[in-house]
Amino acid sequence: MTETSPTGPGVWLALLLTLIALPTTAEGPPSQPAPPAGVRNSEYAEAAPTVERISEHEARIGRVLVDRRAHRLEVPGKVIRLDPPLEFLAIKRNGDKGYESLIELDATAVEFNTACILIGLTQNQATHPAFQSEKSPVGGDRVGVRVRWQVDGKDQEVEASRLLRLEGQPVEAPEWVYTGSVFLPDRRYLAALDGTLIGFVHSPASIIEHRTGLGLGHWGAVGGDPAVCPPVGTPVVLTVQVESVPVPDPVQR
């Protein structure tokens, strides 16, 4: 049995307020906050993220760039697999599910989720699958997910689902929602343990999921689309943009 990770007062908000309170710095190494009071390191299963406040509205969490005014985050990564079966659009840095993921992002699960919360995403509308490949739609704040890379020195960008093929056919199904992953009863964060950041097989571990799912009940049906997706090893930048109305900025409440 799992429980949702708190996005109000608690673990994540304490970490966010630590980040927001950091002074703006133009140079020098980013500060690293201690875990929130009363929270054991084991509850994260990852180190607390390094954070740097860039400006009034921008911050960098590890390598994730957050623009709070635009309600958008960007994180670099690389294409790691095109062949089916794929079950995840993106995993964390050195995540264990690389054999089932299209992209590896240069971020931990805690860094990625902290950035999601900072751009205004909450779990107020989230519904989590009871188990992986559950066919019922999941719920959550709507987000746009896009991926860009360079071809001959020029940027190319597509909506993330277009990088996939379902049973050999192109996919164009931009139905991504923020679910935030879950905490286990022992308070470990499942996304950090599983390493999955963005998925489409309704995994409880994913931080962002595809609302209706792709290839559910048809293992091996999803792969990368070589007609659209850049080759394995290509550096990419993944963008998450809030599409539902964001909650008020916590620093202004």
Q: What does this entry look like structurally?
A:
The chain is mainly β. It has one domain (3-246). Helix content is 10%, strand content 30%. It has helices at 11-20, 109-118, 190-194; strands spanning 3-4, 51-53, 58-61, 64-67, 72-79, 88-91, 101-105, 141-151, 154-159, 164-166, 169-170, 176-178, 182-183, 196-199, 208-210, 222-224, 235-242. The strands form three sheets. Strands 5-7-6-14-15-12-8-17 form an eight-stranded mixed β-barrel. The protein has a three-stranded antiparallel beta sheet with strand order 11-10-16, with no helix packed on it. A two-stranded antiparallel ribbon has the order 1-13. It is globular and about 45 Å long. The relative contact order is 0.21.
Produce the secondary structure layout.
Blueprint: E1 3-4, H1 11-20, E2 51-53, E3 58-61, E4 64-67, E5 72-79, E6 88-91, E7 101-105, H2 109-118, E8 141-151, E9 154-159, E10 164-166, E11 169-170, E12 176-178, E13 182-183, H3 190-194, E14 196-199, E15 208-210, E16 222-224, E17 235-242
Parallel strand pairs: 6-7, 14-15
Antiparallel strand pairs: 1-13, 2-3, 3-4, 4-5, 5-7, 5-17, 6-14, 8-9, 8-12, 8-17, 10-11, 10-16, 12-15
